[in-house]
Amino acid sequence: MRNLVVVGMQWGDEGKGKVVDFLAEHFDVVARFQGGSNAGHTVIDGNRIFKFRIMPTGAVRGKKVVIGNGVVLDPFVLEEEIQSLESAGITIDLLISERAHIITPYHIQIDSLQEKMKSDMKVGTTKRGIGPTYSDKVSRIGIRVCDILSNESSQWEQLSEASKLRIGNLYSSQIDIPVTEIFNRLRDVLLKLRDYVGDTGEFLLGAIHTGKRILFEGAQGALLDIDHGTYPYVTSSNCVSSAAATGSGISFKHLDAVLGIAKAYTTRVGQGPFPTEIQDTMAEHLLKTGKEYGTITGRARRCGWLDLVALRYAARINGTEFLALTKADVLCDIDPVQVCVAYELDGEELCSIPANTSVLDSVNPVYEEMPGWHSIQSDEYENLPGTLREYISTIEKLVDSKVVIVSVGPDRNDTIIVPGSHSDMLELNDNNRDD
User: Fold this and answer.
1) pTM
2) What is the DSSP string of 168-224?
């Protein structure tokens, strides 16, 4: 299997950044295909810590990285991240899609005003303009990288006029920055990035035809997908594996396998239903031990037991054959651990996520109690605590996906490849490493 799609299987924050960084050495190109600067990926490389919002994680390893057309781009954030990597002595080999839509200061202001207007019904966005940018994209009034670089005035005029009207008429406010100043700022920063801009779909297809391996990196998680997540408490893009094709400009036939990333427990940031949320001191323990604070916002995440109903649903909509289980170390010294295997509602059992996700506020999770583990002192799967391996086997059985990676700490070296035919299929075994 040559090309791999990596997606989150919960409500985001599953540790995709660490896993993608770990996997990147096995691939030639890392391509981001959706989301925007609301996605926080943390990579720990020895004493160095990198926090990305838009840059594909493979950049830390010096890989060719691609920002696809499905991404909404804040060029100011990207410029900061490029400067951060360069100051760390890392050479950037980047390609940005000329078709990617631009997040403007209008979108950021509208995002904040929308959340304020919704009051108690707010989604809990990062207020970075992601939703309004995708909205304008679908409304065909958005502005793309190529439009700014070609000095396309008609599209810009349409966007700026519509934005002024919305800010004034809907939210009784005024634009924060004059129109001309906004355009000039965007043009100036994109001119600095011009050498990175091109046709990402054409590049990726050429790379595939020359035998290169591509890792497609998703942002957020399946339960935040605009179509398949816990609507309306979702993000504004498709986070599922099939979006890797539309968001990068290549055919789905080039997507060879899907690796889903899931925590050994469950977290959620912001509003929305959360059936397995813990309300007692155990939640505080998971919060502190797992350092469950948003990379972008710093907000504390809500914590709960592993939800296998949601995980099984995510595996179905992603076609997930393989799983990476992260933060297994956070559950050390908890005995027993709880795993949700079904939902109960009015005496009936639910085994999937309903379309009307408000129902999730009323379900009772059905838990299976499992013995915990007290320490993880090995980098070999066979030497992991037997109760942890039993926990993994339960996940595999109920989700119908094979765990091929287990993360037992925040550093890239705290990662165990599960030996056997499944990791061999993905070419992730030690014999395939460059080092």
Assistant:
1) 0.92
2) IIITS---SS-HHHHHHHHHHHHHHTGGGEE-HHHHHHHHHHTT--EEEEP-S-GGG
